[in-house]
Write a structure and sequence with these properties.
This protein is α/β, with parallel strands linked by helices. The chain has two domains: 2-142 and 299-328, Rossmann fold (3-Layer(aba) Sandwich); 151-286, Isocitrate/Isopropylmalate dehydrogenase-like (Rossmann fold). Helix content is 46%, strand content 16%. The protein has helices spanning 2-14, 27-39, 50-59, 78-89, 96-102, 106-115, 130-141, 178-194, 216-231, 243-247, 249-255, 273-286, 312-328; strands spanning 18-21, 43-47, 68-70, 121-124, 151-158, 163-168, 200-204, 236-241, 267-269, 291-297, 303-305. The two termini are 23 Å apart. Bound molecules: coenzyme A.
């Protein structure tokens, strides 16, 4: 993980990008902004009421003088952004009045700054829910032309076994069908590949290689693995595995001898958001595993979900990751 973060920091520093932070008055955002600006990893725009941001900055003893502060409710950019938002979404029922009202919201305002190229990426939802940032991000920034959907990938260091594991999707796609699940698997595998891992993608289930029968949700994972493998023949993508068979070689020997994945998966794909999100929160509460990074894959420009209980160190790394992705994503 240290290597990965070192590469991100170097890239971000070498070619500085501008990142907007949605809730600029949040304590972790202010502390992270101080660090990122001081180290020169990105230029920053903080959204919110200037007086409130400066007051909080003083209280937390952070220096954010190098940041640009924009209040979405009073900014002179509002009129122009509202017009752009109206043009972008008029076919979906957007009106100019509605667009202007939506721009009061830091998430809509921030996504419009990304869309218009005023900034290169966004980090938000430190206070609001994931959905409140994701909705405008998907509506405004949208899916990359070569991707079928946007999904989230969590990256965690399994310190006990000295390896990096990627999990998807724990945040966004509620109930994907087989084709959508295949794209979630491919998005995650491509991200692993971009970090120089050879993707070994296990589609998870309550069943290992038929042990649970042929329930629809098992068949969905099998179908998704088949489709994803066709899309990326050079990766290993396979179904269906229980969590232990996918991550523990001893369990795999007992449960699925001679399978393509023998406890050595590095990408774990959940059948739906219920399974993924519950696992993520239980892991972070009950084990010493922590989520080091997360990324939205398939979106046109970087958007980072900071999360309401994410530690400061991770918030910093996510802002740097936004700057890194703004440099590297095509
Ligand atoms: C993200 C989310 C808010 C979007 O749902 P929604 O607001 O009901 O919106 P819709 O399904 O109408 O989609 C809104 C837009 O996003 C697009 N979209 C939705 N999901 C998408 C995806 N996975 N990839 C790309 N685009 C997507 C839709 O096509 C639509 O675009 P359009 O308006 O231009 O046609 C919803 O999927 C959600 O709530 N996910 C779970 C978030 C969550 O609570 N996570 C757990 C906590 S971390």
């Amino acid at each position: 993980m240290k290597n990965l973060i070192r590469i991100m920091k170097q890239t971000a520093k070498d070619n500085r990008k501008k990142i907007v932070i949605g809730e600029g008055w949040d304590e972790r955002c202010l502390k992270a902004a101080d660090y990122v600006l001081r180290e020169g990893y990105a230029d920053l725009v903080l959204l919110g009421d200037e007086k409130q941001i400066m007051k909080e900055a003083e209280e937390f003893k952070v220096d954010i003088t190098a940041a640009e502060i924009i209040n979405p409710k009073t900014s002179e950019m509002r009129e122009k952004l509202a017009k752009d938002l109206y043009e972008l979404r008029k076919a979906k029922g957007m009106t100019e009045e509605k667009a202007l009202k939506l721009l009061d919201d830091v998430n809509y305002f921030g996504c419009m700054l990304v869309h218009t190229g005023y900034v290169d990426g966004m980090a938000g939802s430190a206070i609001c829910s994931t959905a409140e940032l994701m909705r405008p991000a998907l509506q405004i920034i949208k899916t990359k032309p070569d991707a079928k959907l946007v999904s989230e990938v969590l990256i965690s260091e399994d310190r006990k076994n000295n390896r990096i594991l990627m999990f998807s999707d724990c945040s966004l796609n509620i109930d994907p069908d087989a084709e959508q699940l295949a794209h979630i698997a491919v998005n995650a595998a491509d991200l692993a590949k971009s970090f120089n891992f050879e993707p070994k993608v296990a589609l998870l289930s309550f069943s290992t290689k038929g042990s649970g029968g042929d329930a629809d949700i098992i068949k969905k994972s099998r179908e998704a693995a088949k489709l994803a493998q066709e899309m990326r023949p050079s990766y290993v993508i396979d179904a269906e595995y229980q969590g232990d068979a996918a991550t523990n070689p001893h369990a795999a020997k007992r449960k699925c001898k001679d399978a393509k994945i023998m406890g050595d998966a590095n990408v774990l794909v959940f059948p739906n958001l219920t399974a993924g999100n519950i696992t993520l929160h239980l892991l972070s509460q009950l084990s010493d595993m922590k989520i080091d990074l997360s990324a939205l894959v398939g979106i046109r420009k970087p958007v980072m979900i900071l999360g309401r209980s994410t530690p400061l160190e991770t918030v910093i790394n996510l802002i740097i990751m936004a700057a890194f992705e703004a440099n590297t994503s095509k």
